Amino acid sequence: MAETATRRKRGGGRAGAAARRGPAVIEQMPFSPPVNRDRPVEPLTEEGIAAIHDGAMRILEEIGIAFLNEEALEILREAGCAIDGNIVRMDRDFVMEMVARAPSQFTLTPRNPAHTITVGGDTMLFGNVSSPPNYWDMEIGRKVPGTREKCADLLKLTQYFNCIHFAGGYPVEPVDIHASVRHLDVLYDKLTLTDKVMHAYSLGKERVEDVMEMVRIAGGLSEEEFRATPRMYTNINSTSPLKHDQPMIDGCLRLIRRGQAVAVTPFTLAGAMAPVTMAGAVAQSLAEALSAIALFQYVQPGCPCIIGTFTSNVDMKSGAPAFGTPEYMRATQMTGQMARYYGLPLRSSGVCAANVPDGQAMWETSNSLWAAVQSGTHMVYHAAGWLEGGLIASPEKFIMDCEVLQQIQRYMQPEIWATGPEEIAVDAIRSVGTEGHFFGIEHTQQRYSTAFYQPFLSDWRNFEGWEAAGGIWTPERAHLLYKSILDSFEAPPMDPAIREELADFVARRKAEGGAPTDF
Amino acid sequence: MAETATRRKRGGGRAGAAARRGPAVIEQMPFSPPVNRDRPVEPLTEEGIAAIHDGAMRILEEIGIAFLNEEALEILREAGCAIDGNIVRMDRDFVMEMVARAPSQFTLTPRNPAHTITVGGDTMLFGNVSSPPNYWDMEIGRKVPGTREKCADLLKLTQYFNCIHFAGGYPVEPVDIHASVRHLDVLYDKLTLTDKVMHAYSLGKERVEDVMEMVRIAGGLSEEEFRATPRMYTNINSTSPLKHDQPMIDGCLRLIRRGQAVAVTPFTLAGAMAPVTMAGAVAQSLAEALSAIALFQYVQPGCPCIIGTFTSNVDMKSGAPAFGTPEYMRATQMTGQMARYYGLPLRSSGVCAANVPDGQAMWETSNSLWAAVQSGTHMVYHAAGWLEGGLIASPEKFIMDCEVLQQIQRYMQPEIWATGPEEIAVDAIRSVGTEGHFFGIEHTQQRYSTAFYQPFLSDWRNFEGWEAAGGIWTPERAHLLYKSILDSFEAPPMDPAIREELADFVARRKAEGGAPTDF
């Protein structure tokens, strides 16, 4: 396939020329997160919601959750929970009282306030793929370990595409940087290459505090200003089944104490780390997430929390995780109903099991993205660039996904289904009658340039036109676009003094040895 | 890409071996049309519905529809409509009275009664791609005119896949058969290679009557039995804007008079044959469809009618039709609301503009299929095999689409979101606790083999496993499967006497010269 790409690239033709046409590269929609006013798809009846809620509460009351974090155990003991070793049992009144403190909506303000996002309400947000250890592109044609260079390339896409609203974790893990200082180098890259909302991994106090400090510096903020409103977030996974580990909880406590946001996303793979039944997997996921959110709300009442879902199923043949399946879609919708029941913003994902950016990748990703729409998801993680169940980041897939994300953004614009007299257009229909056509009439001319979604990657020419331009398949077109975007990328502006302060911080912390690597 | 396919095919490996493993070829879900109980997505408010209805009615009352069919003009004159040349104006009371006669649900019974389908209610039906003049596959690697052989190959897929519930028009136009006798040869192939519900093109009285006669013979039915319940259907397009042509209306009249079903599907491309505004395009589409349905209900009260939508938009750059766009999705949902308002079963489509079965093909097709789900569509035309805006039929695309259709079938099974105590599984969660896993426990073992959707085309192995098996991309896997299915295809049983009667009918009608070709 890589050879094919190279051959086609050389033959490039019109698509290649178009893709290389200058700094703008493509015409894209503005940064304007979709407003999702569609009624969600709700498979659960009221009884079903009550049954899953009761299941989650029974897990918390009767079975309990292991907190491998001494501070959390102390706090929860003080709060009146039953502690048995590291197992915490919470009664439902406590959980519901704590969860009720969480806001249903809040903002995250990055260093560029124009990229402020609202989490919750009707707003739908997309973020880049996060944390794959490996990278694949059409030119390399193999799966290779992530590097700082490739990570930076994907960060440029994160900044470039207006349909990407927040920066997730590292879009690929740069394994060529030592783990003790990786967060310093990547955050420097992230903060200088992008000006969107930042994420910190909860992997030890030094990393979390360093990242918060760097976000504060990049924003030109005093500590008081940093704390005044959420600027960034972390996302943690529980160690399913029923366990929260030390650094994840520690990181969240550090963030909420400085006014920042946390997402809690159990990874409950039905049949492996959770029951084989989707309702059971969802109930367990909720119990795990709510136990952490209850802790955070006890510590910092009203702190911004997001409940995440990552409930999918395994492949019955191999035990491997599968994504974008029918069961994944329904679990996401079910969790959406439960998130509304608890009044919490919801995070889900754009995911697939496919290894290359082909048809399977796109039907699985489409399934997961439509499930995000249907579930009323607020934050869509991994919305662009994910392959192989999250083990590979691919720039071609990133760009293909952005085409789909833009289409969702357009899909949400109510002017499509406006029904005023000018849209019903009886006069235009009368003027054309039974013999004419609508191309040339004024009603069309007035609206033509903005009436329809204009793709940047889809090729809508007929076969002959497409063939004459090189017969370029979608991933190869995406590859050309990727190269053009990198060629013309301009980093967002940053005050040189702030850049220097950031660099000094990185240098100082490196000199101090960075962070421990015993995780 | 063709070279790549051939190379990979030779290297075939595990996927190839699996695909060639015998007559069953794949394990697929049973013939069992999905029951869609999801609440539809409804962009229109009640006022929006009223506005579009009023627009459609004003078109019928004030502008009128051209009927290029003398018989229809006579009938509508008798019915009290205003006739001006070939323009018919109908008042809304007449239209609504006639449309109210149409059943909201009916059955179609093919020669194998086990493949009887219900059109309407909660049932969702999928049919093969219909009418592309051209064919493309990975082996040929070029766009070539359709032939009887390729048409038969695609009919075998239509029969083979249980997720295809009805046979549409010719899955590719066999241009190697003279147009005067094409319907005879292809219907012979269709009726012997498949036992699912049949379609007749409304292209002249001889074709329509011949096809009805062949369906009657294939079913072993007397004329009385044939008429007793719908056995088949036709689908007509209006000649937008605002025109019904002679053979389309004639064909429908012939079918309804013998008790068969009709679908009326205007092809209203916003900005070309309809207003650039989607509400206008939908209103015009409804006016065109309802005018024909009113005629049919006047002639044959209660005859089974389906309202179709094929409202999409053009590419702003080239004027070429685009499919599976955000505007297409919303127009389909809007038409779904209107179909429910009129109490008519709805037809929409599985469509894309892509020229090859790649990522674009699948995101566009996924968009259109999810729009079908969201709109409450009953019959999904072109659900498998469509490329290039309907100008190309592809077996690889057919098989890729069937994978997505099976996933929709699975998605609709309520056991996924069952919430009984056994599904909430608190005891299973308790038994695993915080340290175990769910693979081996009884709760999992009891349900493992049926708990999750099992794909036949998706490759869920990790990258290394996929690579070791040849690194086969989705369309190439689909190609291998296509060949295996053809190799092992067995036609459904047919009484030899009936087969002989069919062959005799074809021979006799050919000897008589078939049908005129002046259309």
UniProtKB/TrEMBL annotation, chains A, B:
Residues 1-41 are annotated as: Disordered. It comes from the Bacteria. InterPro entries: MttB-like_sf (IPR038601), MTTB_MeTrfase (IPR010426). GO terms for biological process: methylation. Keywords: Methyltransferase, Transferase. Coiled coil: none annotated. GO terms for molecular function: methyltransferase activity. Its EC number is 2.1.1.-. Belongs to the trimethylamine methyltransferase family. This is Methyltransferase. It comes from Pseudodonghicola flavimaris.
